[in-house]
Structure formats: C-alpha cells, structure tokens
Design a protein that fits this description.
About 0% of the residues lie in helices and about 60% in strands. By secondary structure, the chain is mainly beta. It has one domain: AttH-like fold.
C-alpha cells in the first residue's frame, strides 16, 4: 500500500489566529432557502480529468493522492457511565490541519484545538496518522480504531458503522460551485465506545456518530463562497443530510437526502431551509442557531434543529461546528433526535 507523508502546509484553511467570540443571539425575520430538483447539482463544467467514477469500497475509504483537497470528518454524541454527555468532533485534512473540539455538556465547556502536523495517509484502506493521531481500519471495512492525544486531550474510540455508506446525490459525486467537483460519502449511523480525558481522570464513554469523507478539486473563492451542512439522526432510524452551497449569498447547489432504518437511500429531494434564530458575532456576522428543514415531497416532514453550543475556527477561513438537537415530524409522525451542523461563513 502506498503511503505519503506531508509537511506542514497552509494552503487550505490557514491556521487559527484568534477566536471570534459570539456576542449576542436573537431572532431574525424568517429566511427561507428553497432547493428544487433543478439545482441539486450546481451548473457549470468540470475538467475532463475530474469526471465521476463509481465509488468502491474498501478502496475509497483510503486516500486519493490525485486530488488536492481531502478530509476525514468525525462528529459524535457520547455519554459516560454517570450519564454526563459530550460532543466530540475531529477533522483531519490532507494539508495536515487538525480541527478538534470536545464539548462537555454538563459543564457547558468547549475545549478546541486547531493546528498542523505532518499527516500520513494510505491508499485503498482507511489509515490516517500523525504524531497526535492514529485512526485506522480495524478488523473489517467501516470499523475503525481512533486514538488521539494532544496537549492534555486524550480520546480513544472504537467505531462501527451500522449502515451502508450514504452516497451524496446518489452516486457520491457532486459539483462544488461553478467548476469544482467532489466525491463524498457518509457513514451516518456509527456505534462508538471508548474513553476520553482532558486531565488525569479518563472516563469511559459510549454513543453514536457520523463520519464524512470527501475529496476533490475546487477553488475556495471562485467556485463558491459559503456552505451549510446538517446531518440528522432521528429516533425512527432515519439519517438525513442537507448540504447547501452558495455563491455571493445565492443558493447555487443543494443536496438533500436520507437513509432509512432498512438501508434504503433517497436522494435529490426538494427542500426548504428556514432560519428561525441566529447568533450574532462581534463583527456582526449572523450564524444559524435554530433552523427549520422542510421536505415538501414527504408528507408533513418538518424538522427543527437547535444548536446546543457554538464553536468557530477562524482566520481567514471561518468554520462553525455545532452539536444540535432535532425535533419535529417525519412523514407525519413525531420524531426527535440529534444533529450536527457545519457553517463556513456567516450570513
């Protein structure tokens, strides 16, 4: 298996300078973003070398050296034996950037890390490692051992996927703005166990999670300027995703779909994203705190997603990662659940 080691690079998501503090929160006039089946894939052309190819496993769990942008992204909801709850987020980018957060819900405290280390990653099998990280396939595809240790934060997890990979758009190939393209899939229903510590007293944890793996080629400024991503785990066994892409505040691409409890996948669903409340940062930027997701093609399907806490990685690439609660109706039946949100620009 071919391996590659990267030196510290700062071509993607340049390093953190200062955290941007959220100054206030409030309500705003209802903002509705409509996505129809006509804009599920952004208009534009792509280089011939970037035409889609079928995603295959376990090959595509591994790295894709031919693509300049790639990341492995893990979001989790965990609880220890005393019932205390945590949200742990980790993202490794092929540039060597590590983005990390641990949200202690009982203490209402967020610990974050944002740094670069030389990253090793392997083709054809999931293996992503650095000085602080060992994230490798275990005894079978879609099973992983995750070990992280950096500046007092230690996390050791075993991860098992319970459903087939969810291929965004149906094939796992989407447009990223005007000329950008990307392959992407998610493991939406993870069973997780292990331990975590921010000091000398590790706690055993169990929980659930969501993994995204994405690779491709695009221009961060010319192809698009903003995205909004939400992943939702409902108590009826449905895992739903919405990925909206914007250019100059105009919605230019939308990918909405879900995988049900029986592994059936549904894609290219028209949707409406309604902002109900926002946080306003110190610079006046507005970030979604409460959103309402409607899917008109599904009878009486309306979900409200509410941020539990707020986190940003800043300068000059702003990235908000949030643990969220979900409630509403799906096909007319009441549902609740957990969710994750990612925003890379304020409105």
């Amino acid at each position: 298996m071919k391996r590659r080691s990267l030196k510290l690079l700062k071509s993607l998501f340049p390093a953190l300078v200062l955290p941007l503090l959220l100054a206030s929160c409030g309500k705003e006039a209802k903002t509705v973003e409509h996505a129809s089946t006509t804009n599920q894939v952004t208009s534009g052309t792509s280089p011939a070398t970037d035409k889609p190819r079928p995603i295959e496993f376990p090959r595509d769990e591994g790295a894709h050296y031919e693509h300049p942008i790639e990341w492995w992204h893990l979001s989790t909801q965990l609880a220890d034996t005393s019932g205390k709850k945590y949200a742990f987020f980790f993202c490794a980018l092929s540039t060597g950037r590590h983005l990390v957060s641990l949200y202690d819900k009982a203490a209402d405290k967020v610990l974050t890390k944002d740094y670069y280390e030389s990253l090793n990653y392997t083709e054809n099998v999931h293996s992503v490692t650095s000085l602080s990280l060992k994230w490798k396939q275990a005894d079978a595809p879609f099973r992983y051992n995750f070990s992280y240790d950096f500046e007092g934060m230690t996390v050791a997890l075993t991860i098992k996927a319970n459903k087939n990979p969810f291929l965004t758009g149906g094939e796992g190939f989407i447009a990223m703005g005007k000329n950008g393209v990307s392959h992407t899939y998610s493991l939406t229903d993870l069973t997780i166990s292990g331990s975590l510590s921010t000091g000398n007293n590790p706690v055993n944890v169990t929980g659930t999670g969501w993994l995204n793996h994405q690779w491709g080629k695009w221009d961060w400024e010319k192809d698009f300027s903003q995205w909004k991503w939400f992943g939702v785990n409902l108590d009826n066994g449905v895992d739903l995703m919405l990925f909206n892409i914007y250019k100059d505040k105009e919605l230019i691409g939308s990918h909405c779909g879900y995988i049900d409890a029986n592994n059936n996948q549904f894609h290219k669903l028209p949707s409406e994203l309604v902002t109900r409340e926002y946080y306003e940062d110190a610079s006046g930027g507005k970030w979604q705190k409460v959103v309402e997701l409607k899917i008109p093609s599904l009878k009486n399907t309306v979900l409200t997603l509410t941020s539990e806490n707020d986190l940003q990685f800043v300068e000059p690439q702003v990235l908000w990662e949030g643990s969220m609660k979900a409630a509403g109706t799906f096909n007319g039946a009441p549902v609740t659940g957990t969710a994750y949100g990612e925003l890379n620009r304020p409105d």
